[in-house]
Each structure stands twice: as structure tokens, then as C-alpha cells.
């Protein structure tokens, strides 16, 4: 199962942990399982429509999943899924 | 308060000047729970704009990993305002990603750059003092 690395802003919803092992064969499945197990993250990772929230970036190992297959990107054992806030302003 | 060593302030301002005419941005790292910035990470502005910035997502991941490897974590972001004062814009406030972060803004409006730092919590902006602690080194 992949390891999911959490940004500081989501750690309070995971008992302060910085990473979790979450089942799933795709990025979308992993994120759905993550939110299902930690309802405080609802609305912060995925939108109500089930798409990736624009305020986060999700990476499979070194790559932004938006440049792979998005939520359909396949995930294997030993992969690292990182979630970071999208940092932007004006 | 944000303790930001003078050599890191100089690095931040240099990156902001180098980014002109666009806004420039980067990330700040400290030990967890501390307010002393130990590293700063200049990043690309993926928005490539004089009015907006987006920290390049790959640069962000690299910075996050480097910080973690050094026992640090990302505790804030800096960016430049090319034509306005060093105060958070409505966009900055609306998109502030983390209430625990420090938000450093460098204004390049005047001849001399001005650097200020803010906390942004639930849409409320509060300026915080920036202390230029001396760089550690041989005495």
C-alpha cells in the first residue's frame, strides 16, 4: 500500500501524523480512502464532485499527478503520494 | 515574530529583484515549532505574472523534501509586490494556504525594497515584527 505524506494543515485531522499508509490502486482511490478514514479532511483534498481540489497539489513520487493521469494515475506498493498546499496569491 | 537572518533577507530580496518585471516567490523553512528561519528556497513563479504568483509545484516538493531531510519544515512563503506596498492583497488573503505560516512580502515599489511579514488566520491579517538575527559564524 502506498504511503501518503500530509501537509501540516491536514495533520490535525490525522492525530498529528505526517504520513499514513492508505490502500488504493489509483490516486483517486487512495484519496477517497484517506478522506473516508479522516472525515475532517473532507472538502480539503477532493471537491464535492470528487475532483482534485485546486488548493492542493498531489504528487506520485516526484511527479505532479495533474501531469500524469490525474486521479486515474495508478499507484503501486512502495509508492509515495505527497499532498502539499497549492501556494499562490497576488 | 519572525526571526529572519540578514543573509536570508538578502537572498529573498535578490530573488525578488531577479524576478522583475514579474512577481517572484519562494518558501521558508524552520525547525518545527520555531520562528527562526534557517533556510529559504527561491522557487519559480509558475504564474509568470507581474500581478500573481504560484509557487511552482515541483519546486515546492523539492523544497519540502530538502527541509524534511534537514529536520526542518516549510513554515511560510515569500513573494514580491512589484507595484504596490508590502501588504497582503485580497488574493493573498483568500488563498493563504496555512494559518500556521508566515507570509513575507517584499515591495519593490520604491527604490529600496521593503520586507514585511504577516500572519493570516481565517481571513484576518496581522503584521508581525521581523527580527534580522545575526548570521552564525566565526567570531
Q: Mind telling me the CATH class of chain B?
A: Alpha Beta
CATH fold name of chain B, please? Cytidine Deaminase, domain 2
Total DSSP E strands of chain A: 6
Q: Largest interface, by Cβ-Cβ below 8 angstroms: which chains and how many residues each?
A: A-B, 16 and 29 residues
Question: What fraction, in percent, of the residue positions of chain B are helical?
Answer: 10-25%
SSE topology string of chain B: EHEEEHEHEEEE
Separate helix tally of chain B: 3
What gap, in angstroms, lies between the N and C termini of chain A?
Answer: 39 Å
C-alpha Rg of chain A, in Å? 12 Å
Alpha carbon gap, first and last residue of chain B? 26 Å
Shape of chain B: globular
The major sheet of chain B is characterized as: 6 strands, mixed
Structure description:
The complex is a heterodimer of chains A (90) and B (139). Chain A is of the alpha+beta class and 90 residues long. Chain A has one domain (3-85): Ubiquitin-like (UB roll). Chain A is 12% helix and 23% strand. Chain A contains 1 helix and 6 strands. Chain A has one helix spanning 27-37, and strands at residues 3-5, 19-21, 56-60, 63-64, 80-85, 88-89. The mean pLDDT of chain A is 95. With 139 residues, chain B is α/β, with parallel strands linked by helices. In chain B, 24% of the residues lie in helices and 34% in strands. Chain B is built from 3 helices and 9 strands. Chain B has a 6-stranded mixed beta sheet. A two-stranded parallel sheet of chain B has the order 1-9. In chain B, a hairpin with a 2-residue loop joins strand 7 (114-121) and strand 8 (124-128). The longest helix of chain B has 14 residues, at 6-19. The relative contact order of chain B is 0.22. The A-B interface holds A 7-9, 55, 57, 59, 62, 64, 82, 84-90 and B 23, 25, 27, 47, 51-55, 57-58, 60-61, 64, 73-74, 77, 79, 88-92, 95-100.
